[in-house]
Amino acid sequence: MFNWLKGKRDKRPEYEEAKLIAQSDDEEARRELAALTDLEPELLYFFATDKNSKVRQAVAENKNAPIHAKLILSKDKDEAVRKKLA
Questions:
Q1: Relative to the CA of 26, which of 4, 32, 58, 76 has its CA 20 to 30 Å away?
Q2: 2 Ramachandran zone, left/alpha/beta (phi>0; psi -120 to 50)
Q3: What is the pTM (predicted TM-score) of this model?
Q4: What is the SS3 assignment for 69?
């Protein structure tokens, strides 16, 4: 488990591992996960409210982020997140 966190990132993690990463304290891993265009929409939606603005920026730049996530990000307190979305 957590092979993806250990640097074996040649493919996206399995859904269960992605959920664990999404809840982890590893901000870099969460950001990289949020940037994956083939990630499940519900995880991208979850990342739209992440405490780290870099993670939220990754969702804002993700072309496959669901519209609901983009609506949340359009009201983000961080201007950099809103700019990435634009």
A1: 76
A2: left
A3: 0.87
A4: helix
